[in-house]
Amino acid sequence: xxxxxxxxxxxxxxxxxxxxxxxxxxxxxxxxxxxxxxxxxxxxxxxxxxxxxxxxxxxxxxxxxxxxxxxxxxxxxxxxxxxxxxxxxxxxxxxxxxxxxxxxxxxxxxxxxxxxxxxxxxxxxxxxxxxxxxxxxxxxxxxxxxxxxxxxxxxxxxxxxxxxxxxxxxxxxxxxxxxxxxxxxxxxxxxxxxxxxxxxxxxxxxxxxxxxxxxxxxxxxxxxxxxxxxxxxxxxxxxxxxxxxxxxxxxxxxxxxxxxxxxxxxxxxxxxxxxxxxxxxxxx
Length: 284
Description:
This protein is α/β, with parallel strands linked by helices. It has helices spanning 5-16, 27-36, 50-63, 79-82, 145-149, 176-184, 199-207, 219-225, 232-236, 239-246, 254-263, 269-274; strands spanning 22-24, 45-47, 100-104, 109-111, 114-116, 124-127, 138-142, 164-167, 190-194, 213-216, 280-283.
């Protein structure tokens, strides 16, 4: 067991107060102290004197020789920087994707004011600072990586063929890097989400910042061309998303939402791309 950020912060506050001799510790901190030190406690509070407090600090500093207990962990550390203080790089404030996004495009990308044309099937993981967003008319967010990887095969209106395309992922939350990028976009930039046609995909449209529309085939194409691709067992596993959607009313894509809920559709992006069905925008 190792100390986490909150435990280090608690110890730092305790040692900064020279007069404090009662250390309140519960949960992980109490377990860690019990594991490494023979200290008296009455349940939630360790009772020390000045001598035992000095000994405790020296003991912790032997276990964490690079950590200044009086200062604690400095804020806003990357995983590279935090190992100057502790061995566990996961204690860093910044995760690898906090300042990076995965992007592709059929048109030339402008990175650090340099135009770059990507070969078919190639994407780049780039820092946010590299992307020129000042004149973007539209960006597209894609849920599944295998669809993102073959974006050039997606049947989409020519108006959006030159848009920047970003990988979202199918986790419950968007990466901080993508959230930051979306927050910096000009107010008139369209933000379109291309996700699975299931309750979870629709929930993403509500919870992904700045989304102005959903990319999906027409309602007729969904019913006539894709119904046999639906997986009801997948739909039934998404009860939390179904409950969430029943509480939402969104005029722009309400017909799409009602169709998915009524027919219990769970149609994956892969089927849409494979059938080469044209995507339309269900706007706000």
